[in-house]
Design goal:
With 297 residues, the protein is α+β, with helices and mostly antiparallel strands. 27% of the residues lie in helices and 29% in strands. It has an eight-stranded antiparallel β-sheet with strand order 13-12-18-9-10-17-14-15, covered by helices on one side. The protein is globular. The protein binds guanosine-5'-diphosphate. The site of guanosine-5'-diphosphate (GDP) has 15 residues, from α1.
Length: 297
């Protein structure tokens, strides 16, 4: 069943932090995520990240890992939050140093604060002559957000997503902040997690990117995700490589669900296929009744 059993301390193992990048349009979110994706290839792997699956993991030179949620316009993050799925451990909020703290920046800050997610500021575009990172930090201070340079506790890093200057330092600060969270999960149980995105591929059927949050997902597992269900036929990582198993904080795209679950849907592995099917059917029925009711009102 879906009921979760509490893990004991000795079952828990450290896991990678799950990080979202947010900020005002054009302040450099995409550029920063692209730079990180291109520069940080899993140690020993040839070839970079080839698939856009909405999330990816990077491994730094010292072996530490970070999982990035990389969803266009961060709709998924908003959708996930709206549906009560708390996935993100940390938020990087990008602010362009040639601009100011803008409405969407403020919105991102309140989203993160409401979710209780620590913030690391990325003060971007410092390669530009007109950049004034101190002005940004002053604006933040006026909002009661004191960064470390200003005697506060919030981490911030001046950087350029274009030249890469400051990006390694940003990732170090993210890991430092993550350490304080003492993130752990039990890898030795049936997987649970959250759907990041899903789409219908002409040749392969429904492809769903899911983020395993606890346990280990294996090929052959029977999964219930929102109103969809099915046996995992194949799993791929962000490099397009087939994988047999995925542990906590790992994003994978899976094949085998009978539909496209929604971003933010929880998924669970079931030992009993019939139980998963009957819950999926009940959810579909409820959804139908609900949409009939909405049409009537
Ligand atoms: P997003 O809307 O937040 O995803 O912003 P983008 O990553 O698309 O960046 C918006 C624009 O700013 C693009 O033209 C980028 O090339 C440019 N840009 C982003 N980061 C930097 C930077 O560090 N330095 C400079 N000079 N330009 C940047």
């Amino acid at each position: 069943s879906i009921a979760e059993v509490e893990d004991s301390e000795d079952q828990l193992e450290p896991r990678a932090p799950i990080v979202t990048v947010m900020g005002h349009v054009d302040h450099g979110k995409t550029s920063l995520l692209d730079y990180i994706r291109e520069e940080n290839v899993i140690a020993g792997e040839s070839g970079g990240i080839t698939q856009h699956i909405g999330a990816y993991g990077v491994q730094l030179k010292d072996g530490q890992k970070i999982t990035f949620l990389d969803t266009p316009g961060h709709e998924a993050f908003t959708a996930m939050r709206a549906r009560g799925a708390q996935v993100t451990d940390l938020a990087i909020i990008v602010i362009a140093a040639d601009d100011d703290v803008m409405p969407q920046t403020k919105e991102a800050i309140s989203h993160a604060q409401a979710a209780g997610v620590p913030i690391v500021f990325a003060i971007n575009k410092v390669d530009r002559e007109v950049a004034n990172p101190e002005k940004i930090k002053e604006s933040l201070a006026n909002m009661n957000l004191l960064v470390e340079d200003w005697g506060g506790k919030i981490q911030s890093q001046d950087l350029s997503a274009k030249t890469g200057q400051g990006v390694p330092e940003l990732l170090e600060k993210v890991l430092l902040e993550a350490e304080l969270l003492d993130l752990k999960a039990n890898p030795d149980k049936p997987a649970t997690g959250t759907v990041v995105e899903a789409f219908l591929d002409k040749g392969r059927g429904y492809v769903s990117t899911i983020l395993v949050q606890a346990g280990t997902l294996k090929v052959g597992d029977y999964v219930l995700a929102g109103r969809t269900h099915g046996k995992v036929k194949a799993m791929q990582d962000e490099r397009g490589h087939d994988v047999e198993a995925a542990g906590p904080a790992t994003p994978v795209s899976i094949l085998g669900l009978d539909g496209a679950p929604q971003a933010g849907d929880k998924f669970h592995v079931f030992e009993d296929e019939r139980e998963a099917k009957s819950i999926a059917a009940r959810r579909t029925q409820l959804q139908r009744e609900q949409s009939v009711r909405t049409q009537k009102t």
